[in-house]
Amino acid sequence: MANTWRRDNNKAARLLSSKPLVSFLILTLSLYVTFTYLSTSSSSIAVNTIHREQAHKFPIPPFDCHSSRQAAPIIANTVENLKYPFIYSLADLGSLPEKPHKNIVRLLKGKPFRKPDISATIQELLEARSRNAFVVDVGANVGMASFAAAVMGFRVLAFEPVFENLQRICDGIWFNRVRELMTVFEAAASDRNGNITFHKLVGRLDNSAVSATGAKLAFKSNEEIAIQVRSIPLDDVIPESETVLLLKIDVQGWEYHVLKGAKKLLSRKKSEAPYLIYEEDERLLQASNSSAKEIREFLYGVGYTHCTQHGTDAHCTKS
């Protein structure tokens, strides 16, 4: 019996010897790597297919965050006091170190970024609405309105012509995990298709405008640079079959031209027409050869008969 026991023991030792054990580990590792690769490839193919299909729907290709060079530095944080919180990345850092952006100071103090008014407004307006619809953000800047809607589950079409702002939107798409919900266009919405001259201020990316005068109204001492950007009417981009719940426009005085390019969208019947928010600053409008009166008359003509003022923003609906 003793000898038999020793034979069994030797057999177990042989089974656990280095050769079979190494072979077993190699086989297990190979299966794991193969499974992981196939899973990742399938997922990547699925995501790329989705984005290719989305690209075919639009007359201009969406901005490709993956191919764009990375912005630096990245300074991002959560926004304070929102039911649906999100993260956004700063484009304007201020004149460091003399006058840092107010949110950099908050970050150093361990506080979240100050809540932009538009973010809270959008979430309140959309709270009770079906998520199977679009929100259109024209003049998206760094995405404070876009992300407020996307983290709630809404699909977003964002238009932003300034490359540095687009980089920050790409940061936010990653931080908030909303790639499948957001489509971003490197373009200025307008009433004509083609190219227009756009003016941006050195060191300030939140006051760029089609009008050179409009770009410098708030920051007269900043250097202004003229660039060529793509322009396109919203009616050329938004499919007539898609529901649009909200249209937000903040384009430093170019609002009238954006609205004219969205006439078909705005002419939809009351139950299908979007809630409209646009900036109504008379100085900026005049710099772009339009006026608040001209805009109100246009909106009245397409059925938007009820507008209320909220600071410098006008909120309009069909009554």
Please give the structural blueprint.
Layout: H1 2-15, H2 18-57, E1 76-78, E2 87-89, E3 94-95, E4 99-100, H3 102-108, H4 117-126, E5 134-138, H5 144-150, E6 155-159, H6 163-176, E7 182-185, E8 188-189, E9 194-201, E10 204-209, H7 212-216, E11 224-232, H8 234-237, E12 244-249, H9 255-260, H10 263-266, E13 275-279, H11 282-287, H12 292-301, E14 306-310, E15 313-317
Parallel strand pairs: 5-6, 5-12, 6-7, 8-11, 12-13
Antiparallel strand pairs: 1-2, 3-4, 9-10, 9-11, 13-15, 14-15
Helix pairs in contact: 4-5
Helix content: 25-40%
Low-confidence stretches: 1-9, 11-16, 24-53
Structural classification: alpha/beta
The largest sheet is: 7 strands, mixed
Order of helices and strands: HHEEEEHHEHEHEEEEHEHEHHEHHEE
Number of helices: 12
Number of strands: 15
